[in-house]
Design goal:
- The chain has 101 residues and is an all-alpha fold.
- The protein contains one helix and no strands.
Amino acid sequence: MFRPKVPTMPQPTGLTTPPAVVEPTAVTPHAPAPASTVATPARNRPAVQLTPGTVLALVGGGTAVVLVVGAVLVSMLLAVALTAASVAVCALTVRSEIARR
């Protein structure tokens, strides 16, 4: 009942080219590269150093981002509210004009 129907591919009718013959190639090993003798010294300090000034800058930057994003969202909400109020006023005006006639 649930057997998929596999489409049959028609056989080519024109001239076909024979498949390309792939010949194996010989693999020759190369000499290994000499190992580097210079060792890098281990780092004792962390990759990122947080000084009090850096922490203060990060906190200030994060606060600024939150305030800007909040202001943008509040202004968008205010724009939507004003648009809805003006559409409601227009609808009431049109309704009252239609009712007068």
